């Protein structure tokens, strides 16, 4: 057992920032002396004294032998991994590295169609061929859940030469599928199970939270420590266990997708977040779950509103657990879209959601939230229901297309081939039946609706236009106004 009280990287950074010396190395602001005054006024000088580079005492992220190595070993023990890597380019680079380390050009990888855009980037970088699975879908709530064990089994029977399976656990809504069963099926083919666990870094620290991906049998998982724990934005971790993953390939892949000038502020925040959870995680998660339960109970009692809960009547293999710190509120009963409710809550009541969709608003309740936050959230919804309810349920009057349920995607080229192919930009109206050459996705949550290599269809175009008309934001593509699209020439 390692001493989880230790914070080796943070301690080394503190010592080096306090050491009197003449700095003739990067960064150019030289311990904050050259920082713009308005920025110093906002953040203070202390943070810039700690904004250091890879000095002798601070180790090297790509070849750690000192304090970074010690910090990563502590993190591996705390999160239940055999080896852990710190990430300064977010979970995005971790997902990319996972695919690069397990798949080469032409190799098949099985994954859900509702993956994050980082997985598509991994396909482009690696040249891997996606075998897409449609996740289980709730037609009433218009929410996609997890892929199912049966879907994975069927895909592997059809594609026994696949090199890996990748899944999302939990989804953006906090929904967890049957990861243990998926792991067992995947391992029957002696290939690794990769998990995008960006929103599940807290699972290891309380028994009332869903089973962590590693404990469920995942070979590799990527967690956004900054999303739900106490690290700084962009600070994440990649964890591995077992012998199905070549750790040397992970290290080499990360050298391709991580900065060679890593921020020690981000690295130290990972060290500190690990110590915080190792020492106080259960207490912090108990408090967080209590706040979340109060919010769920009180909001569910407001007429016209409901919250996402576990299915009660029938087995749902794509939804066997729910992260109760993730609160999804259905607002369509008020005759409002999620986009409209989001704008009202933010502008009128200073309550800001994580993201909005057509019928819902989703909130992340974490260790940083307070009882006052929950009270403000509940009061905001109470007033919203009283003063902004509409008589017409406009959401139900909309013709809304859920892509995961109704559309079949035709992949004419691999994502890599389409991305690097000669392309042209055409008006949206002229792109039907052309091959897409860019990623197009509403954000958040950053799930692509179109990706390089897929055939553009009229229903997809109508779907994107409707999202935009209702207040959604389209990202990833060259023209975010969506007047044009890039297609293969």
List keywords for this structure.
single chain; 489 residues; alpha+beta; seven-stranded mixed sheet; 17 helices; 19 strands; 38% helix
Largest sheet: 7 strands, mixed
Number of continuous helical runs: 17
Distance between the termini: 58 Å
Low-confidence stretches: 394-405
Beta percentage is 5-15%
Sequence of strands across the biggest β-sheet: 1-10-9-8-6-2-3
- Global morphology: globular
Q: What average pLDDT do the residues reach?
A: 93
* Beta strands, count: 19
Radius of gyration: 23 Å
Short characterization:
With 489 residues, the protein is of the alpha+beta class. The chain has 17 helices and 19 strands. Helix content is 38%, strand content 15%.
Structure description:
The chain has helices at 8-18, 37-43, 46-49, 67-79, 90-102, 117-126, 149-158, 179-188, 225-228, 247-257, 264-300, 338-349, 371-387, 394-397, 403-406, 415-420, 458-469; strands spanning 83-87, 108-112, 129-133, 137-138, 143-144, 164-168, 175-176, 193-196, 220-223, 236-240, 306-307, 321-322, 326-330, 355-356, 360-364, 423-427, 441-443, 473-475, 484-488. It is α+β, with helices and mostly antiparallel strands and 489 residues long. The longest helix is centred in the middle third of the chain and has 37 residues, at 264-300. The termini are far apart. The model is unreliable at 394-405 (pLDDT under 50).
